[in-house]
Amino acid sequence: MKSFFNEIIYLKTIGSTNTYLKENNHEDRTIVYTFDQTEGRGRTNKKWSNFKDKNIAISILLRSKNRILNDIWYIAVCSIALTELLEGLKIKDIRIKWPNDIYINDEKIAGILTESVWRSDKFEKTVIGIGVNVNADLNDLKTLDNKATSIFIQTQNNYELNAFFKDYLDHLSKWFSILFDEKKIYVIKNEWTKRCKIIGQKVKFNKDNEICFGLVDNIGQNGELEIKVGQNIINVLSGDVELV
Ligand code: BTN
Predict the structure, then answer these.
(1) Cα(229) to centroid of ligand 1, in Å?
(2) At 186, is the secondary structure helix, strand, or coil?
(3) pLDDT of 117-131, one tens digit each?
(4) In degrees rounded to 5, what are phi and psi of residue 196?
(5) Can you give the pLDDT at residue 208?
(6) What residues does ligand 1 touch, defined as CB less than 6 Å away?
(7) Ligand 1 pocket check: which of 9, 11, 14, 18 to mutate, most ligand atoms within 8 Å of Cβ?
(8) Which DSSP letter does residue 212 get?
(9) What is the pLDDT at residue 62?
């Protein structure tokens, strides 16, 4: 199978793979990875810990000519690719927490951060960063603020990091090709909807600084969550949506 990616770069150590791709000039469809990310960033200015040589940090660069879609579909693709890999390892209770995180039960195993670069009002590129807890153990993860797990904890097996990258790359390549080359957004939407396990669930969310409760009805054409509040459907495109 032809790879979706044009350039694959391994960095021995780096502050942040996202920052690296934002600040350096690489071609469209470049993917970088490291096992030693020293200043990883999460969403809402949080820190993302890598635990040197235990976990992996990956970033993907997509340039303007590919900007046919809402960024949320890139997040969907990275999540579907990872959950497919985790299913192959027979890990149970995998759930994509719409839109950015992957959980096993109520413990986070991976997070995604997308960032866009604009130059003089002109869109230049999107960078999608994925941090996956691969071999971190309980001692590592208990230092974090929130509950987290890893592939090692779930399977009791160490997953050699280069092997993990190679396997994940195959899944990413497959799903990005479905999105960009085959242009089958509906396939992505269906797979994502199935794996989010959020349809029909009661949720709490923030809309215009007000806390609301509702029932998730669907994922819409733009990747937004359609939440039923009374007789109305409210569209939520980003922000924190919590199961209650
Ligand atoms: C989150 O859960 O808040 C998102 C975490 C995103 C972490 C990844 S690791 C690769 C890329 N580089 C970064 O600095 N952050 C992202």
Answers:
(1) 32
(2) helix
(3) 998 888 899 999 999
(4) -75, -25
(5) 83
(6) 16-18, 37, 40-43, 46, 48, 57-59, 101, 111-113, 129-131
(7) 18
(8) E
(9) 95
Question: Residues 53, 71: contact at Cβ < 8 Å?
Answer: no
Q: Is the pLDDT of residue 7 over 90?
A: yes
Residue with tokens 């109305």: 232
Residues in the chain: 244
Residue with tokens 């986070």: 108
Q: What angle do CA 12, 14, 15 make, to 5 degrees?
A: 160
The CB-based long-range contact list for 43-49 (8 Å cut-off, 24+ gap) reads 43/100, 43/111, 43/113, 48/111, 48/113, 48/131, 49/140, 49/143, 49/144
For atom 15 of ligand 1, which residue has the closest CA?
Answer: 41
How is residue 102 written in tokens? 């992957």
User: β-strand 202-207 against 241-243: which pairing, if any?
Assistant: antiparallel
Rounded distance between C-alpha atoms, residue 178 and residue 185, angstroms: 8
Q: Answer positive or negative: Cα dihedral of 78, 84, 86, 91.
A: positive
List the beta bridge partners of residue 31: 8, 60
**Pair of tokens at residue 84:** 């497919």
List pLDDT tens digits, range 228-241.
999 999 999 877 78
Ligand 1 atom closest to Cα of residue 110: 2
SS (H, E, C) 84-131: HHHHHCCCCCEEEECCCEEEECCEEEEEEEEEEEEECCEEEEEEEEEE
Listing DSSP states for 157-170 in one string gives S---HHHHHHHHHH
**Percentage of residues of the chain with pLDDT beyond 90:** 80
Look at the block and give the residue holding tokens 């149970």: 92
Q: 34, 113, 133, 240: which to mutate for ligand 1, most atoms within 8 A of CB? A: 113
